[in-house]
Design brief:
Radius of gyration: 29 Å
Number of strands: 11
Shape: elongated
Order of helices and strands: HEEEEEHEEHHHHHHHHHHEEEEHHHHH
Number of helices: 17
Oligomer: single chain
Distance between the termini: 22 Å
Helix content: 40-55%
Length: about 425
């Protein structure tokens, strides 16, 4: 069974014969321009150029499974459809009239579409593999490279939208936004929002006053997180709480609810307790990082951060008062690559974009090519397709493609899907 989306695809990419076309009413049809695909309300394709009989028409095209869908969708009551010059349907079952009472020409597709178009689409929709098009063959390298470029840009734009939101929330204070944005990266995907809230609950001005005391910073952030309290028994945590209550009252801080933090189905390395301690370590070692990034080209070229290691207490504890069952100390660290990929690159790109600084935008993209690709289940799935990531540039694009397109079966919006649907579909003549 064909969907309207598949009929849109066939019309847009001219997968129907371009010669010897006739309307259901018997007039010869010559397609000069299929029109602009419309993703908003109104007809499906706008300002198409089509010769019907001896007359050249410029107007809109509407596509349905059946002609009667026109009335089912109440188009006869919508003036936006008054300029439809051609009604494209899989099956014609009812005449449709325009606002002047004239029959709208119909192009019926059921005997015109490539025979393998629907079966191929059905196989993609069934998704027998993690990447739907995996069973259709080898991806053309030119198509892949160009589409990955597009995917990386979309990925960065997705991240930069969050930065724009933070700018509005934080009164366009770039230093404050950078500080909060870095915090999100320490929260990873699961605790990104709690980390953002944690950073926003402790102004950067407060942090700067205690950068040279990791103990005080841990007291502030662990207290604000509500992951420690007055009932903790361990000496170190009790001392953190005591210091926190003093600093809380001094700066009039308001703690977050403990319930926002997620621990379930997570490795200890990603527990928020470990991440908060690493966050403190990073802050205390990289004072004025934002100004250095913007003004020091050599720093951008190198970006070798000091390792953000958890403090001594959290090397033997996953949570306050709960000692690890492991006989070895927890040596989790937050790597340079994670910071650069998830925080530095999108931030430099946005800052360069808003300030008209092409150097920073180009440097942001170049940074990804200098970093080894991530290794995870998504990248391994692509490797089974003989698609290999040479750098973080590629792996970031492939991760975005899988999450945003493959998982949502947006094959008809993907150039790789277009490649398989178009080049391997034989048209009828």
């Amino acid at each position: 069974m064909y969907s309207e989306a598949l009929l849109h695809f066939a019309w847009k990419f001219k997968l129907i014969p371009q010669k010897k076309l006739f309307s259901f009413q018997g007039d010869k049809i010559e397609i000069i321009d299929v029109g602009k695909h419309n993703s908003d309300a109104g007809p499906d394709f706008l300002t198409a150029k089509i010769k019907i009989g001896e007359t050249l028409w410029v107007g809109n095209v509407e596509i349905h499974i059946k002609s009667s869908d026109w009335y089912l969708h109440q188009h006869q009551n919508d003036s936006a459809y008054d300029k439809v010059i051609l009604h494209i349907v899989f099956q014609h079952d009812k005449d449709v009239f325009d606002c002047n009472g004239l029959v709208i020409p119909v192009l019926e597709l059921k005997d015109l579409l490539p025979q393998d178009l629907a079966p191929k689409w059905d196989s993609l929709q069934a998704k027998p593999t993690e990447i739907a098009c995996q069973q259709l063959g080898k991806i053309d390298s030119f198509v892949l490279i160009n589409w990955l470029d597009r995917m990386l840009v979309e990925r960065i734009e997705q991240k930069t939208e969050l930065i724009f939101q933070l700018l509005k929330l934080l009164n366009n204070d770039w230093n404050e936004v950078f500080y909060v944005w870095l915090a999100r990266s320490f929260g990873s995907k699961v605790n990104a929002v709690p980390f953002e809230l944690l950073a926003r609950s402790v102004p950067l001005s407060v942090v700067k006053k205690h950068l040279h005391s990791s103990f005080q910073l841990e007291a502030i952030f662990f207290g604000q997180s509500s992951l420690i309290n007055e009932f903790n028994q361990d000496d170190y945590v009790s001392s953190l709480w005591k210091e926190y209550t003093f600093l809380r009252d001094k700066y009039k801080l308001v703690a977050l609810p403990k319930q926002i933090w997620k621990f379930m189905r997570m490795r200890p390395a990603n527990f928020p307790t470990i991440k908060i301690s690493q966050w403190v370590s990073f802050l205390s070692q990289h004072e004025n990082l934002f100004e250095q990034l913007i003004n020091d080209n050599e720093l951008i070229n190198q970006l070798k951060f000091k390792e953000a290691r958890a403090s001594s207490y959290w090397k033997t504890h996953y949570q306050a008062d709960v000692i690890s069952n492991s006989k070895k100390e927890i040596e989790f660290k937050f790597g340079n690559e994670t910071i650069v990929i998830n925080a530095i690159v999108p931030f430099l790109f946005v800052y360069g974009q808003l300030r008209g600084n092409e150097r920073l935008k180009e440097k942001a993209i170049q940074l990804l090519t200098s970093i080894k690709p991530e290794q995870n289940s998504i990248i391994k799935n692509w490797e089974r397709l003989n698609v290999f990531a040479a750098s973080a540039y590629d792996s970031q694009a492939l991760i975005y493609l899988k999450n945003q397109y493959c998982d949502n079966l947006k094959c008809l919006e993907c150039n790789i899907g277009h490649y398989f649907m178009k080049t391997k579909s034989s048209q009828k003549t």
